[in-house]
């Protein structure tokens, strides 16, 4: 049996080490080994569609046309979004898009600019 910790997000026992991180193959949650060993709360690692790590204040580019729910407007491919804020939840990017306003995006539909 493995002596690695269970995933703090989904409690999966199939975690593995990847460099300085523990990774859960079931829910794709990643957390730092040092935080797990220290017993502290692990911070979530946010990644874009290409695997680049995102941070608060980054600029990103939309990689797919995104329909806005409840509206006929669309966020077009190539739309650049500046000064993002990362939040927990399904839609993990909080931002303001010129001409549309405040909205939330999923990190899987953007790439770091």
UniProtKB/TrEMBL annotation:
Residue intervals of the Protein YjdM N-terminal domain: 4-32
Key words of the record: Hydrolase
The keyword Repressor is annotated on this UniProt entry: no
Protein YjdM C-terminal domain ranges (all copies): 47-113
Protein name: Phosphonoacetate hydrolase
Family: Belongs to the YjdM family.
Gene Ontology MF, one: hydrolase activity
NCBIfam families, sorted: phnA
């Amino acid at each position: 049996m493995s002596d690695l910790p269970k995933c703090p997000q989904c409690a999966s026992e199939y975690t593995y080490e990847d460099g300085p991180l523990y990774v859960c193959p079931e829910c794709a949650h990643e957390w730092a080994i040092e935080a797990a060993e220290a017993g502290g709360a692990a911070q979530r690692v946010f990644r874009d569609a290409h695997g680049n790590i995102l941070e608060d204040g980054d600029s990103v580019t939309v990689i797919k046309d995104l329909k806005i729910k409840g509206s006929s407007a669309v966020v077009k491919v190539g739309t650049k979004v500046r000064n993002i804020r990362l939040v927990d939840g399904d839609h993990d990017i909080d931002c303001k898009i010129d001409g549309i306003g405040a909205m939330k995006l999923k990190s899987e539909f953007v790439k770091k600019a």
